[in-house]
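seq/struct pair 1
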Amino acid sequence: MAGKLSKEERKALIQEAEKERAEHPVKKTESGFATIDKAAEKLENEN
């Protein structure tokens, strides 16, 4: 970037990012261990 942003510019960027997050929420993903546990349980149920 060419230089520092002013407070107003920073505030506008933050508001824009918050608006974007509100419109397109990120789904919470499971941890790696939860995924492994589910796969193991599925395999146990198949046998």
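seq/struct pair 2
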Amino acid sequence: MRPNIDISHTLGGRVKDYAEANGLDLSEAYTEVLEAGLEALETQDQQ
């Protein structure tokens, strides 16, 4: 379940486009995007 947060229409559209391009439902796309973003932040913090 996604938290109730405000995101811009542009950002939501990008996630929707990602979902469509990769054959994912919207929840799967949000999960992948968030996990990738968190991994990138963790990697960045280690540098």
